[in-house]
Amino acid sequence: MSTFDVIGFDADDTLWRSEDGFARSEKAFVELVAPYAPQGTDVFAALQATERRNLSVFGYGVKSFGLSMVEAAVTVTGGALPSTVTRELVNLTREQLIEPVELLPHVPEVLDAVGRAHRLVLITKGDLIHQNYKVTTSGLEHLFEEVDIVLEKDPATYARVLRRIGVKPEQFCMVGNSVRSDVLPLLSIGASAVHVPYHITWTHEQVDEHDQHFAELSSLAELPDWLAAQTNP
Amino acid sequence: MSTFDVIGFDADDTLWRSEDGFARSEKAFVELVAPYAPQGTDVFAALQATERRNLSVFGYGVKSFGLSMVEAAVTVTGGALPSTVTRELVNLTREQLIEPVELLPHVPEVLDAVGRAHRLVLITKGDLIHQNYKVTTSGLEHLFEEVDIVLEKDPATYARVLRRIGVKPEQFCMVGNSVRSDVLPLLSIGASAVHVPYHITWTHEQVDEHDQHFAELSSLAELPDWLAAQTNP
Lengths: 233, 233
Fold this sequence. Notes:
The structure is a homodimer.
Chain A: E1 6-9, H1 19-33, H2 43-58, H3 62-76, H4 83-98, H5 107-117, E2 119-125, H6 128-137, E3 146-150, H7 155-165, E4 172-176, H8 179-188, E5 192-195, E6 215-216, H9 223-229
Helix pairs in contact in A: 1-4, 2-3, 3-4
């Protein structure tokens, strides 16, 4: 029997694809904006820098990204941006918000298997309306005892969620694709975490180095066996 | 002794000014955009219609409003919008997000008085990062047992919050400026509500008519006495 009572799952790029949508919008941004920028301008780098500057005020999510696209486009074109392109950038943002959810392989059967022996919670950061849209249209909502859409995945936030669902850190294990958001904060509060990498990691989620040890699975499909192998010491 | 165990407070235009910020941005929008729109265009009506159309996908809050401002400006100017104006609209959005919180009269002393005899929770809808910024910089956060930033203030959401904080509907009273969001959904689940009107109501929050009866106070300052007068039947 697993040592954990509750398993927490990240959502974006753990249960369903998310970075792919941003990557498509970024590609479209470059194609739309580059023709109006001075030759030699790295419009993609400008977009990333704008996003980074806006992060503390705009927060995570597609709407913040959309506002940064508009702002970066105006900046790099030095006033030469046609408003038809501005409209396209708003349209890209809207399309990304209503894109159908594309589940990653094995997700429903893994959640079903893990849910038989554990309580499941979903802990995701980002935009309230967009995350809620994805959760409700994914067909997975009923598997989770609680869905928490949080502002920041830091140790204090996780501690608050754990208190609220009534579980001790040593009985909680988080599963996600981001070492920075889904693994390190859990280890720091005495909980466990499993890293399941996704092939794209948002640059703002990358950690340069860390000296922590934690489990890493190459696929979510390995999770039920991994959990079954964890036994009380 | 009051019949209520927990008092819930709305935030925007109940504890601090919010619509004033939108009103300022709307005024600036009209001044910035009207000169580029064909004569006789009602650019403010176009903005409101764009907001309304985007509400189900963008959700509430300043970032959604900012994207709608950009989109409406492109539309009403028929392609004649200078990108310098687009930049100004993004700047308005950012400024609105970092505007200092302006508390409404009597708020700290009323919360202090009501908090002596009740548990207090804050229940607000909108943008996670913006609402969190306002709560943390207001200096009021410590007075609340829980802060819930929700997607929609409907009966199901209130029922979930009440279950989570462990209070029965008949022991809960909500206080807020919106009949649609802070009063009617509570009455429908058997809880109580007090309406404290604000001088501006967002058009999307207005209700045409309702046949429910509930208390209405002209100022939050009247709340402690009103609560003290409610006794168990």
